[in-house]
Write a structure and sequence with these properties.
58% of the residues lie in helices and 2% in strands. With 264 residues, it is mainly α. Strands 1-2 form a two-stranded antiparallel ribbon.
Length: 264
């Protein structure tokens, strides 16, 4: 600190005045600067000669607080996943177009059904309502597993997410197998596409959904393979998101088709 002595005063009665530059100095700590406090005149005010290495015990032990970057305090969760990507948005548009397709099929079925007082026709076999009802729960369970896979990877649980994805895929395959067995039995009983409008409507509506389930299962198998290569993390998992979106669509469409085709 500099001392200014007023002229004409004795040494024992002199007045000590702080220089304005020193008096107005603001002392701030620069994170990660190696330990000391630095004023606006850039002078190091660390604790002695070792201040540049040890600092005050908070910021100079080899790495300052600023060297951690954006990681945040120890134990904090990773950064949130990025916003919706272009691929995910494209999948939303695709699902919207598929929803229009199935809505058209349902409206067509309602119009055809209204023109027939007896439905199904007396000479046609009855549909396997109970088996298809139980099979509906298989598909809904697959959708729940898929949703769990998406939530798990959002929380950073990648191995758990892959296991749930595989469970969803296996349940989807089981749904197709059960439906295929029932189709073979219905064909043996005489229900055919070319026989009458009843058979045509059934196979077009249910067959269109089965085709979508088959394509979605192939997509889930591809996503599972990508999982095995470490392609998906908490921050990057657009492939899983798109596969889950399409799978959720085919799962939610089926209960509507079941009610219209099997129960009405």
């Amino acid at each position: 600190m500099s001392v200014v002595t007023q002229p004409g005063t004795q040494p024992d009665t002199q007045t000590e005045l702080l220089e304005p530059k020193v008096r107005d100095l603001e002392w701030v700590r620069v994170p990660g600067s190696g330990g000391g406090h630095t004023g606006s005149d850039r002078r190091d005010t660390g604790n002695g000669g070792d201040g540049g290495r040890e600092g005050d015990g908070r910021g100079g032990s080899g790495r300052g607080d600023g060297d951690r970057g954006d990681e945040g305090p120890p134990g904090s969760p990773p950064a949130a996943p990025s916003a919706m990507g272009t691929n995910v948005l494209g999948m939303l548009v695709f699902i919207a177009s598929e929803a229009v397709l199935f809505l058209t099929l349902i409206v067509t079925f309602a119009v055809v059904r209204a023109g027939y007082p007896e439905w199904p026709p007396s000479d046609q076999p009855r549909l396997p309502v109970m088996v298809s009802f139980l099979n509906t729960f298989v598909l809904l369970g697959s959708g729940a597993a898929m949703f769990g896979a998406w939530r798990s990877i959002r929380r950073g649980h990648v191995p758990s997410s892959r296991r749930l994805l595989n469970a969803a895929t296996l349940l989807g395959i089981l749904f197709l197998v059960v439906q295929g067995v029932e189709w073979v039995r219905l064909i043996d009983f005489g229900l055919a596409v070319s026989r009458n409008i009843y058979g045509a409507v059934f196979y077009v509506m249910v067959g269109m959904h089965a085709l979508h389930v088959f394509i979605a299962v192939l997509g889930l198998l591809y996503v599972s393979r990508r999982f095995g290569k470490g392609a998906y993390t908490r921050e990057t998992h657009d492939g899983l998101t798109m596969g889950g979106m399409f799978w959720g669509f085919v799962v939610l469409v089926w209960p509507l088709l079941f009610v219209f085709v099997y129960l009405l």
